[in-house]
């Protein structure tokens, strides 16, 4: 079973994501881990085809990213061998005319039937069903020339993911273009689906905790802490599991939610 985590904040934060649970899950998910984050207007992807619990690089990544948007994944393979090309998150540059964006994608589940997921422009580098789905998704975005996102574009992509999410295909996924965080929860709640936690008015840090069990921490950078009285910091965490005894909200089966600047922008009935 794989684990997914997505973060989206209104301001760049120096994250201290001591997600001990995810590293411990590396014992159960021995085939790889990866982090994608956006900083200085660029996508950065760090990943390894090995258990996170054995990785010195994982410890470095916990402290480093200063970002508004981050995607994390730990992997147990069901398709594709244990190598870098098969490790999530996957990433591609999408160019439509002069409009260029970098997309990152991570998937939890198994797509048994990928016969319809043909892509003309983007081709998988590895052997995973997940990367094939990502290439198919990007091909559709490119074919439809989506450069500006609104409710109609979101609804089309949600419908596309629902069509992929057949009885033979389990699909939880998180992807981003750096500006938006897209999150889709499996129709039948595979791996318990996704849930999100909204954070607001963060002063210095937010600890993910349940009684004596500490899951991790989201920590603001020094510059933001010094000015926290003047900045309203909004954020959201999306995960395949509840990280602590907090007010998590479950996704509906087959629902896609989109976040920007730490707030819900789709669907409209979820907006705060």
Protein architecture, described:
- The chain has 272 residues and is α+β, with helices and mostly antiparallel strands.
- The protein has helices spanning 20-24, 56-63, 129-143, 151-164, 222-226; strands at residues 3-14, 32-39, 42-48, 66-75, 90-96, 99-108, 172-176, 181-184, 195-200, 205-210, 213-219, 234-239, 249-250, 256-260, 263-266.
- The protein has one domain (3-270): Glutamine Phosphoribosylpyrophosphate, subunit 1, domain 1.
- A 7-stranded antiparallel beta sheet has the order 3-2-4-1-12-9-13, with helices on one face. A 6-stranded antiparallel beta sheet has the order 5-6-7-8-14-15, with helices on one face. Strands 10-11 form a two-stranded antiparallel ribbon.
- The chain is globular.
- 43% of the residues are buried.
């Amino acid at each position: 079973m794989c684990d997914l985590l997505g973060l989206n904040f209104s301001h760049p934060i120096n994250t201290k994501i001591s997600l001990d649970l995810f590293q411990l899950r590396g014992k159960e998910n021995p085939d790889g881990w990866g982090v994608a984050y956006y900083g200085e207007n660029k996508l950065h992807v760090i990943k390894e085809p090995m258990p996170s619990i054995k990785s010195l690089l994982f410890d470095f990544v916990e402290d480093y990213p200063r970002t508004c948007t981050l995607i994390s994944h730990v992997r147990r393979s069901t398709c594709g061998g244990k190598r870098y090309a098969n490790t999530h998150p996957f990433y591609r540059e999408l160019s439509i005319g002069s409009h260029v964006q970098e997309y990152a994608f991570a998937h939890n589940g198994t797509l048994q039937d990928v016969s319809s997921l043909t892509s003309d422009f983007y081709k998988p580098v590895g052997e995973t069903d997940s990367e094939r789905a990502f290439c198919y998704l990007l091909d559709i975005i490119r074919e439809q020339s989506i450069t500006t996102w609104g409710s109609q574009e979101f609804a089309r992509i949600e419908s596309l993911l629902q069509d992929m999410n057949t009885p033979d295909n389990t699909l939880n996924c998180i992807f981003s273009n750096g500006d938006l965080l897209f999150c889709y929860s499996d129709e039948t709640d595979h791996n318990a689906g996704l849930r999100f936690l909204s954070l607001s008015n963060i002063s210095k840090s937010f600890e993910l905790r349940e009684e004596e069990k500490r899951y991790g921490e989201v920590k603001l950078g020094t510059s933001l802490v010094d000015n926290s009285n003047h900045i309203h910091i909004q954020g959201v965490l999306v995960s395949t599991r509840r990280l602590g005894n907090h007010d998590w909200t479950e996704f509906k089966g087959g629902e896609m939610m989109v976040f920007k600047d730490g707030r819900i922008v789709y669907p409209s009935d979820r907006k705060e």
